[in-house]
Amino acid sequence: MRISWLFLVFAALLLGACGGSAPESSSPADAYTAFFERLDNGDRQQALESLAPDGALGDTFRGGSYYMMAEVMEQQYERHGGLDAVLIDEEREISSEEVHVEGRVRYGDGMEEPRRIIFVKEGERWVGRL
To answer: What CA–CA distance (Å, rounded) separates 118 from 130?
Structure first.
């Protein structure tokens, strides 16, 4: 019995250290989903850093659209009972470096809102172009 308990604790620690999930930018759809989920979890800065291209958040002009989108989404989460699901409707590959993701954010009250983000490859990760 004690060995089983220790094994479960060890497995939980190992999963936590490994992240337990696929990297956020392994695909544009993963990056899309991770952005909205992180916002719902209250991780605005981490959500923005994972979505925005390098240097965009420090640039008032380019960064403003990312912060504005985050603010609007957080207000919607508050108004409509949080995030229920992120649904991917289409992942259209324009080239090996650009993919358009069209999906919907479903809120806790059942309302859905369409969201489209263009993703471009930046090194090994996919970043959004707003």
So the answer is: 7
